[in-house]
Amino acid sequence: MTSISVSAIPLSELTLSERQTCNITDSRDCWSSEFNIKTNYYEKTPETGRTVEYHWRITNQTMALDGYERVVLAVNGQYPGPKLEANWGDWIMVHVTNELKSNGTGIHWHGVRMLHTPEADGAIGVTQCPIAPGDTYTYRWHATQYGTSWYHSHFSLQYSDGVVGPIVIHGPTSANWDIDLGPILLTDWFHKPASELANEVIQASTGLPPTADNGLINGKNKYDCALLGSIDPKCKNSGTRFETKFEAKKKHLLRIMNTGTDIMFKFSIDGHKMKVVSMDWVPIKPYETDVIFVAIGQRYDVIVEADAVPGDYWMRAVPQLSCFTTNTQQYNIRGIVRYDSTSTADPKSSSWSITDQCQEEDPKNLVPIFEDNVGSAELDKDFQLSLSPASTGGVLPVFQWTVNNNHYNPNTSAPTIMLINSNPKVEVPDSYSPAEVTSTDGWTYFVIQTNNQQVAHPFHLHGHDFYILGKGIGIYKSLLAPPVLDLTNPVRRDVALLPALGYLVIAFKNDNPGAWLMHCHIAWHLHMGLAIQVIERKGEVKVNRPEEIQAVCNAWKAYDKSNGADGA
């Protein structure tokens, strides 16, 4: 159920902005007389006076998304979950009720800054406790950014089983379009539940993620039961392809996102070029390409003109096999673009020629339209990533990731912001992997370095866009012949790919007090401890409605005590 209401703020205290007064097919860069594509959205947001309200239920549903039947954790009975849709400047209110048969849940709004609402970030153990079965928690946040993103459970590996959906915040676009075709969610897909796979991973001889059985586009694809080699009653051979329609000569906006847990994708549409107009929440100067490299958590808005010979064309999500160390499985993850919606034929189109390599989009093409420079860099933190077996006293070794030899393992019943709310001078435990930022202005600079695994990591920071100052292969040397850092309007986004055996240099403004998780978005790596918490301006962190968070924590503690929840 979705309802829209006007907030109760007296008009004498709030000057409402115009909404969408000039955003039409030939002027998509405009939003109103005061706001457009060049507006500094970090400092200025429309005040619409509107609250968009949603009521969501998370349940266990038996589904065969690709033709193989399994239990899916659905939002309002569907996967992907309902689209969260609003306008730039709206307030969002989402009531989430946990109706799962067992275990907690919670929802993170990927890439949303959560300016002045840190308690709504949805990071379990950081900004809230899990929502216990039968309990409800309400998230409230302000849409200060615009574009495309997604929401997902941030409770252990849960989003591998479901609890995923798109976010669309309407705002200006850097090129014109006619038809918004909406979100395109790309994901890897497993036929076993995440809890079962997790035990296999951490006790395996390598500690590497499991191999996905398939992939989905907007929750659909086909799985060939013959691949199993034997009869499995769960395999129904009932999968279907996702389909969408192009209108000849029209320009179509597609909102592409990688909502997977392990696979980086190459996205393309046979016979059609794409004009890329935004990355994550950041509008960019348009550029044209025939394929987009999309790391886990990343989003790209693209405009595709229907200028090909009318017919049926494959939409392809091809895994970047070079990002894996062991997975060589050949996937067939496709959707269909039709010019004639009555057609039922499989396309006969040919793919673009694409070299397989583990990469993301060329930073030279990713030029933000609102220009923002970074101050002179003095690196604050240097993070070393490592994967190694840990001693648990058991027979088998258990693999864990560490950052600077620290394994992220917070107490989900005592979230960081509640510790800070109770005592702003509290020393956050080492098991929470805290990295404190105390400066009240200016910038923080991080170097993230991986040194013992031939694996690329898509790193995501909550609460901020970060500015990508440099990346490369080898050891970063800041004093001896340092690499040249890009401080002039660099790429900024909320997910960036750390190269295998390489480094990533990032910066962010110290302008959002809170506790913000920074982690690898390969879900299996986060589950194994590959994360830190950025504790930003601890003495200024303000928690709204702490009594609601405490009530959720009390309900979770009672449930956990009675049921022994496993956190998977």
From TrEMBL:
Keywords associated with the record? Copper, Glycoprotein, Metal-binding, Oxidoreductase, Repeat
Q: Which CDD domains would you find in this protein's record?
A: CuRO_1_MaLCC_like (cd13854), CuRO_2_MaLCC_like (cd13880), CuRO_3_MaLCC_like (cd13901)
* Keyword field contains Metal-binding: yes
Enumerate the GO terms in the molecular function aspect.
Answer: copper ion binding; oxidoreductase activity
Determine the domain of life of the protein's source: Eukaryota
Which InterPro entries does the record match to this protein?
Cu-oxidase-like_N, Cu-oxidase_2nd, Cu-oxidase_C, Cu-oxidase_fam, Cu_oxidase_CS, Cu_oxidase_Cu_BS, Cupredoxin
Q: Which Pfam families match?
A: Cu-oxidase, Cu-oxidase_2, Cu-oxidase_3
Q: Which residues form the Plastocyanin-like domain?
A: 58-172, 183-340, 414-539
Q: State whether keyword Protein biosynthesis applies.
A: no
The family note in this entry says: Belongs to the multicopper oxidase family.
- Identify this protein by name: Laccase 2
What's the source species' lineage?
Answer: Eukaryota, Fungi, Dikarya, Ascomycota, Pezizomycotina
